[in-house]
């Protein structure tokens, strides 16, 4: 499978706070890499052939690339907003395509069935109309005006509310979710999914959050988000085919899948095909 278009993108390869001089061995798109701190305490990423790879440290994570990124890592302005709590959720390994992991994150129709009594509940299963666009200037997929009833929208929520969402895909294996912030209705909570493609059918998922929540213990915030994602993992690991089909005729979408359709179209446009299935088999 060609992967040239995705070689030059940035990918998360570890939590900066957990790095030491011994480093950790991991992989990026099939190539073994070493992530460590150098003598000055800076992050350093080395490829399997010993070459030093490009590095950025942002949003609590170390980012790297096997190629030469043509642009800087995408901005999340809320990451610089005073008063927010930044939550390094950790990592969950999932035996699925990295593109499948992102697409699942964009899907709201599964909330009542997979995240029952947390992010959704029957009989509140209908996905209301929402807006999806590929924003040409930023070259990102956006879904806005997404509303869903949730029994427990966040760890800080005290009861069921209709939550508003915005979804953003700024990179092929990353998504940023903005959702109603119960303690501060004028602001958005930010929940991200940073996906490290280990192979075409295996990935490490690094969720990260920037929240206005001064009450909840950090361990509870981490546990809440890990609970949600572990519920997703069982679904992701049983999806067939394992790779994400990009041919529109291979899986039948519903009206609720507008974001997924736009994401697949955007991937195809850029030839982001590492982890994708291009033709029916």
TrEMBL record:
InterPro entries found in the cross-reference section: Cholesterol_7-desaturase, Rieske_2Fe-2S_sf, VanA_C_cat
Keywords: Methyltransferase, Oxidoreductase, Transferase
SUPFAM superfamilies on file: Bet v1-like, ISP domain
Entry coiled-coil feature ranges: none
GO BP annotations, alphabetical order: methylation
Keyword Lipid metabolism: no
Pfam family, one: VanA_C
Positions of the Vanillate O-demethylase oxygenase-like C-terminal catalytic domain: 94-269
GO molecular function, one term: methyltransferase activity
Domain of life: Bacteria
Presence of keyword Methyltransferase: yes
Annotated protein name in UniProt: Vanillate O-demethylase oxygenase subunit
């Amino acid at each position: 499978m060609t992967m040239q278009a995705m070689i030059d993108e940035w990918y998360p390869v570890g939590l900066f706070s957990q790095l030491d001089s011994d480093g950790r061995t991991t992989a990026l798109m099939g190539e073994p890499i070493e992530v460590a701190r150098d003598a000055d305490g800076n992050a350093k990423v080395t490829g399997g052939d010993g070459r030093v790879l490009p590095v950025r440290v942002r949003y609590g994570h170390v980012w790297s690339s096997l190629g030469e990124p043509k642009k800087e890592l995408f901005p999340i302005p809320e990451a610089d907003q005073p008063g927010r709590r930044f939550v390094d959720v950790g990592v969950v390994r999932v035996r699925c395509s990295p593109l499948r992991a992102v697409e699942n994150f964009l899907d709201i129709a599964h909330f009542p069935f997979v995240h029952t009594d947390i992010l959704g509940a029957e009989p509140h299963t209908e996905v209301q109309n929402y807006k999806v666009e590929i924003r040409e200037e930023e070259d990102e997929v956006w879904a806005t005006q997404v509303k869903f009833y949730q029994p427990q929208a966040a760890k800080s929520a005290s009861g069921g509310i209709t939550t508003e969402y915005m979804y953003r895909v700024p990179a092929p294996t990353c998504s940023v979710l903005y959702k109603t912030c119960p303690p501060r209705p004028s602001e958005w909570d930010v929940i991200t999914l940073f996906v490290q493609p280990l192979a075409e059918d295996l990935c490490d998922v690094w969720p990260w959050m920037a929240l206005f929540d001064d009450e909840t213990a950090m361990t509870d915030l981490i546990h809440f988000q890990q609970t949600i994602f572990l519920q997703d993992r069982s679904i992701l690991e049983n999806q067939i085919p394992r790779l994400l089909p990009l041919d529109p005729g291979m899986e039948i979408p519903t009206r609720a899948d507008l974001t997924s359709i736009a994401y697949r179209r955007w991937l195809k446009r850029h030839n982001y095909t590492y982890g994708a299935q291009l033709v029916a088999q």
